[in-house]
Amino acid sequence: MSQHGYGESDNRTDCQRKRKESLPEPQLWSVFIDVPADELSQFDFWVEYAAASYCHDNYVAKTGDKLTCWANNCPQVEQADTEILYDFSNTTITDTSGFVALDSTTKAIVVAFRGSYSVRNWIADATFIYTDPKLCDGCLAELGFWSSWILVRDSIMETLNHTVSEHPDYEVVVVGHSLGAAVATLAAADIRTKGHPSAKLYAYASPRVANPALAKHITAQDGNYRFSHIDDPVPKLPLLSMGYVHVSPEYYISSATNATVHTGDIEVLEGEVNFQGNTGTGPPSLTAFPAHNWYFGKTDGCKGPGLPL
Predict the structure, then answer these.
(1) How many domains, the chain?
(2) From the candidates 116, 178, 228, 248, which is the catalytic residue?
(3) Structural domain that includes position 137
(4) Is residue 84 a part of any domain in this protein?
(5) Is residue 192 part of a domain?
(6) CATH code of 74's domain
(7) Active-site residue identified among 4, 196, 229, 292
(8) What is the per-residue pLDDT across 244-292, written as a single tens digit (0 to 9) for each?
(9) For the region Disordered, what residue ranges are annotated (predicted)?
(10) Which residues contact 305 (CB under 8 A, 6 or more apart)?
């Protein structure tokens, strides 16, 4: 098997046919349309942690600092009793950035990953090569996203394990937006195998991260909340034709950009491939990026200027 996870073949058409045959059947139905109001409030709350991960003072912080958002896009998090336990950035080839925080109000230990900001982040975004994460038989992950996780894994797991031992009644929550959501998805899958099986995942605007085997494995772990928004181009990448699929279910947000999300604006769609949601809104388009930036609010509002290395 090659590093791309496909059998070696000199016949390109045959290889493409095999890739297509390996994809799961598209799903054309949803579980329910209106999400309960209490769930909507949870979705709106946890995205603020994803927003907070873009703020420089949170991922380049001092232990014990409280989380803040200068863009005023994480008011609920700012009101909570929070403490940064560990921050990470600018130390790996992928520039994986974020923080581990203790939320004593919500009783949660939060691992948050920042979305794309630096040149190294964009390289991680565009790798599109498979690697074996050794999470299950036949499972393959996108190399850039998996590398972004394993390069910071040891320190995060040390912090997480220590904190869980001190606060055994706190839940573990992994969050991220865009690239951060991709890393969060694979991190949550791995964290669950390392003593924290009930860890929850809130992934906003995540690209596809897995082949069908790994996507099914993560789906079966449960506790996954993966959000897409109208025609956001990022969840459409890497392409289905490359063998990548999504973790199920998809919480598809149909409300307009800059609009408040109501319970009837979220449809819950099952399946690793489902054309009733974001996948069915057409090919990726650069003109649709406003939809990528708005998940219950301006998710990347704290992102700094320019494009650093």
Answers:
(1) 1
(2) 178
(3) 12-293
(4) yes
(5) yes
(6) 3.40.50.1820
(7) 292
(8) 999 999 999 999 999 999 999 999 999 999 999 999 999 999 899 999 9
(9) 1-21
(10) none
